[in-house]
Write a structure and sequence with these properties.
7-stranded antiparallel β-sheet; about 40% helix; 19 strands; binds the ligand O=P(O)(O)O[C@H]1O[C@H](CO)[C@@H](O[C@H]2O[C@H](CO)[C@@H](O)[C@H](O)[C@H]2O)[C@H](O)[C@H]1O; Phosphorylase Kinase, domain 1; alpha+beta; EC 2.7.1.175; Mak_N_cap; about 20% strand; binds adenosine-5'-diphosphate; Aminoglycoside 3'-phosphotransferase, Chain: A, domain 2; TreS_maltokin_C_dom; transferase activity; nucleotide-binding
Length: about 550
């Protein structure tokens, strides 16, 4: 007897959209299925159910249909979540079934006497073609609840209406398909009642800037409803790349690592060139996102620069205090699971609580004349594709833990800079402390080597980044503000990472803890310089930029 879950209905596949019994049966089958999917974020929560809320119908090229299901996952605590699942039905004898991997098979069904398999439709070429051609043709398809609107962007070239497609084998929080090796279509899985920030950002950079280091916007798929639009997918140009910058930096670190046991400190020149280039590209991205009012050309309000208002300061402080509370609690709960080195660092973090609280609170009143703009929001080495000689920046969805409205809040671009600096710190720490080559080396010595690499790379990145703007630039009032804001965002990011590592990679917890403690040391220096009433610490002499291995 087969253990594959199965359902049956007397209704034929193309007529099932409004069949309530089918929806209910399907929901039973979907709950175990979505728990096997990488994109379902509710696995660790106490689930109370999964229901099919809405069914959109998408005509397929062979006159059949696929359904875009909008699912609601509910939990014992907290608000429900919405997910998108495209559904297709392949009859038992369909040759297309062979190409469907196990992870795409939801269950079997007998519909109006026809046996077959229900699959995630991304694995059905007909579905992929239907999506792409609808985007190419700017189609709209009326649905019982709203409209499916397909928009074509500048990046989708004439003549590319129909291209062979594939599902990209990367397992991540969304699903990706490629078309003719030229286009990349991301189907969002977890849905939010708003336009996805990624579509806004990529469309803005493509349409309203000269910045060429993102994959150009090729279009989007939107569920239009009277209340709000919901973004279901986005097309971009496909970027030929070998790897992302996390992997590329890992390769550079492998070269570096071989010399460490011989007490040689060697970083190749081209590593600095690459770090400088990434600093420049990051600066250029932020220049492109800085679009103030111009004569006869008012700024687009969604992107117009804004000052550090009290409202923003309150928001950031509230969020930071809440994050700190949650992280201290998590650390206490998991303290005994940490290794000795992480426990030592955790103590320093806990003892610094008062100073950290005072530093965060200082943000409420400190004069700040720098400006805030829309930023990438989740910027790290894994979000940068390394092409043959340059970089392309991807994944503008924003901070994974934040709500969609929060992801659209403007910040100092130094928040992205802090994300990248943290990522370099991760890269060197993960490599040096987890490699066979360094086994047996005194950990204090390793820490000094790791710090030296990190400070050199950090300052190279930062110098190249700030040089891009030329001085002065309205985004950065002065060196004191740069220093202060960088520290705030570095601290926030490292505290956020602490939670991620405790939950997913406990042996890496010491990496963000070390990051937090480095910032705490800089806070001490800032407070000293404030006490001496130094009006403006000159560039390259600020505590952060001067940080030296202890
Ligand atoms: N335009 C593109 N061209 C080529 N590969 C891409 C492109 N965009 C993303 N990728 C690849 O797909 C992966 C997932 O993309 P990403 O935007 O990070 O999706 P997710 O939102 O699911 O995290 C990336 O790590 C990268 O390898
Ligand atoms: O890429 P996501 O948006 O899913 O972000 C989550 O996972 C990241 C890990 O891949 C995590 O990033 C942290 O680890 C990276 C190395 O693996 C490092 O480069 C980043 O600097 C560090 O923050 C991210 O925090 C998490 O939200």
């Amino acid at each position: 007897m087969s253990s594959t879950p199965s359902i049956s209905s007397t209704t034929a596949w193309p007529d099932l959209a409004t069949d309530t019994q089918f929806r209910a049966d399907l929901a039973q089958l979907l709950l175990p299925y979505i728990n096997t999917c990488r994109w379902f974020a509710g696995k660790a929560r106490q689930q109370t159910g999964c229901s099919v809320q809405t069914v959109h119908t998408l005509p397929l090229p062979d006159d059949s249909v696929a359904y875009l299901l909008i699912l609601e996952a509910t939990y014992a605590d907290g608000i429900p979540e919405s997910y998108q699942l495209p559904l297709a039905f392949l009859p038992e004898d369909s040759p297309a079934l062979e190409a469907v991997p196990d992870k795409g098979r939801i269950g079997t069904a007998t519909l109006a006497g026809q046996p077959g398999t229900l699959i995630d439709a991304i694995y059905d070429e007909r579905f992929r073609t239907a999506l792409f051609t609808a985007i190419y043709a700017n189609q709209t398809i009326a649905q019982p609840e709203g409209t499916l609107a397909f928009h074509r962007g500048k990046g989708l070239a004439d003549g590319d209406a129909s291209l062979p497609s594939q599902v990209l084998p990367v397992d991540s929080s969304n699903s990706a398909m490629t078309f003719g090796g030229k286009y990349f279509l991301k189907l969002y899985r977890k849905l939010f009642n708003e336009t996805n920030p990624e579509v806004e950002m990529v469309a803005f950079l493509t349409d309203e800037s000269e910045f060429a280091h993102i994959p150009a916007f090729g279009g989007s798929l939107v569920w239009q409803r009277p209340e709000t639009d919901i973004t279901l997918g986005m097309v971009q140009r496909m970027v030929p790349n070998d790897k992302d910058s996390w992997a590329q930096t890992g390769d550079y670190l492998n070269d570096f690592l071989y010399a460490v046991p011989q007490r040689l400190f060697a970083i190749r020149e081209d590593v600095f060139d690459k770090v400088e280039l990434l600093g420049r590209r990051t600066g250029e991205m932020h220049c492109a996102l800085y679009k103030p009012d111009r004569p006869n050309e008012p700024a687009n309000p969604a992107f117009a620069p804004e000052p550090f208002t009290n409202e923003y300061r309150d928001f950031l402080i509230r969020r930071f205090e809440d994050l700190l509370d949650r992280r201290y609690a998590l650390l206490i709960d998991n303290y005994t699971r940490l290794d000795a080195q992480a426990q030592r660092l955790a103590w320093v973090f806990m003892e610094a609580k008062e100073m950290i609280d005072a530093f965060v609170d200082d943000f409420r009143t400190r004069p700040l004349d720098s400006l805030r703009i829309r930023i990438h929001g989740d910027y790290h080495l894994g979000q940068v594709l390394a092409t043959e000689s340059d970089f392309v920046l991807i994944d503008f969805e924003g901070e994974p833990e934040s709500s969609i409205s929060e992801r659209k809040i403007k910040h100092s671009p130094l928040k992205d800079v802090a994300g990248m600096i943290r990522s370099y710190h991760y890269a060197v720490s993960a490599k040096l402390f987890n490699s066979a080559e360094t086994e047996g080396i005194d950990p204090d010595h390793l820490q000094r080597v790791s710090d030296r690499w990190f400070y050199l790379i950090r300052d190279t990145f930062l110098d190249a980044y700030l040089d891009t703007f030329g001085a002065p630039h309205p985004l950065f009032k002065n060196n004191n503000e740069i220093n202060f804001l960088l520290l705030i965002y570095l601290l926030e990011k490292a505290v956020y990472e602490l939670g991620y590592e405790i939950s997913y990679r406990p042996s890496w917890v010491k990496i963000p803890l070390k990051g937090i403690i480095d910032v705490v040391r800089e806070i001490e220096k800032i407070r000293l310089s404030d006490g001496d009433l130094i009006p403006d610490v000159p560039m390259l002499q600020t505590g952060l930029l001067q940080g030296k291995p202890s």
